[in-house]
User: Fold this.
Amino acid sequence: MNGKLDAKQTNKKMQERKRFQIEKIDLITKEGEKISIDSAKLVKVFRIMEYNSIRTILNLSWKRMNKLKLTKILFVGIIRKLRNVEPRVSGYMCLPLLSPIVAPLIKLKKVVRIEVFLNDKTFYFSLKSPYLIWDTIMGIKQIIYTNQYNVSEKNMKNRIIIDAGSNNGDFSLLAVYMGAKKVYAFEPVSSTTNMFLENIRLNNMQDKISVFKKALGNKNCFKEIYFARSGDGGAKIGKVAGQKCEKIEIIRLDDFVADNKIKKIDFIKMDVEGFEDRLLMGASNVLKKFKPVLSLSAYHRADDKERLPKIIRSIREDYTIVLNRFCEEDFYCW
Assistant:
């Protein structure tokens, strides 16, 4: 079965991508103080968030950046790598890098809510821990600011959406903002699901988004998922050293759609940390019957760029598949 990408279509899809201009982000502390990050500061914040341990080595002399803090992050990252602890460099470790730009570090640690101003809409994100500041802003950068899943009114308005690996709900919130009729979201980690439900309440989207504390796969079963903390975007099914675990339910999307008598699925977003292949196999009837647009991660496994297109085309040969690099690497299929 042909698994090659449709390279000629890539530039066209990239040109179609809508960019979302964030006017500002407000960080609200538990005392009610407001720390505003305007659009100019946001560019700097997002640049900092591109750091990983290698880039830290290469950018120790970055203008106006604290070399001591960068060196400390690098050192801790190396130790964590030697001990096989994930992630090598966590968002919380990098939090001090934001303080010179947005606020003193002591205030950042007291932030309990983030408000994102986007044109005529404000998104609200609840924080239960200072660990979540970095992760939440990273999600805002990737999903809203860069629009890595290539959403638009064309593929969202009045559509039925599946959000697999929904985390705190940033993609689901954006989908509703773009006019989605209904979002079925799947997030298996209990504490992260609770955080997502709070975000739905804050944004008054209870009638548009339904959350299921389950994972999607190729068979109905129970497995353990490993994660570092609530809101961990890297939670994985399969043992990871030094992390918490929780027993979760896995279901097939085909069964979910049949059991709930859902008449149409228009768009499926997948970011499930290497479980994309099994999700696709458990959604073969949905793909055959509805041919939904697919926007899915293409980088979790070394052979994803070869295997995932083959799996998709083994189900339906008529999918056009391109690889987008708006932020992370994602397949966009229609």
Confidence is low (pLDDT under 50) at residues 60-64. The chain has two domains: 1-19+149-334, 21-145. Residues 21-145 form one domain. The longest strand covers residues 244-252.
